Amino acid sequence: MNPTESNSRDDNALTPQLYVLQLRQDDPKKCTAAKLVKFRLARPLYKLRQVPQNCLTLNPFAQASLLNKDRSQALKHGLVAIDCSWERVQATFSARLPGRNLRLPTLLASNPVNYAKPNKLSSIEALAASLYITGFRERAGQLLSIFKWGPHFLTLNAQPLDAYASVTDEEQLIRVQSEYF
User: Fold this and answer.
1) Interval 64-105: pLDDT, tens
2) What are the residue ranges spanned by the domains of the chain?
3) Cα separation of 113 and 9, whole Å?
């Protein structure tokens, strides 16, 4: 076995560290981030200063989009979802957030509260979409499997997710996104 084969296997076995900044604005029984933490699928953060400096922070108002080329940074520094109420999203994301802020391309929610609404993703859907786009598809499915409705997210968004995962730049992303939404 040559060294490149070994590295590629190691890289496939690794997945990014997932973090959730928990602002505790939602009903704890419906909070997908709390369940991620409970199952030890994500590390909880409670203050902005705890967010790792070079991580990829998911921010629906960011200028740049998450692309497959962000895979190595996600693997090295992790992915952060900010868990807040959609009613307070404007105020929450108007603060300067640590890390490299990136938005997800348009996707449909499969969670019961916002089913089929574009861009109204739960924390787990946002993290799963990020994993999928950056090439960690199996891990995305594992995350979503802890909810009855979770796997449907991948089914509902199968074509756009596959297309987004192959995009190489923002211009291409805009074209692909317009094909689906």
Assistant:
1) 999 999 999 999 999 999 887 656 566 555 667 889 999 999
2) 3-180
3) 39
Evaluate whether 82 touches 22 at the Cβ level (below 8 Å): no
Written in H, E and C, the secondary structure of 92-158 is: HHHCCCCCEEEECCCCECCCCCCCCCECCCCHHHHHHHHHHHCCCHHHHHHHHCCCCCHHHHHHHCH
Q: What is the pLDDT of residues 13-49, one digit of tens each?
A: 699 999 998 876 666 666 888 899 999 999 999 988 8
- pTM for the model stands at 0.87
Judge whether 81 and 16 are in contact, CB under 8 Å.
Answer: no
d(CA 58, CA 93): 10
CB 117 within 8 Å of CB 60: no
Residue 141 tokens read as 């499915």
| Residue 80 bridge partners (DSSP) | 19, 57
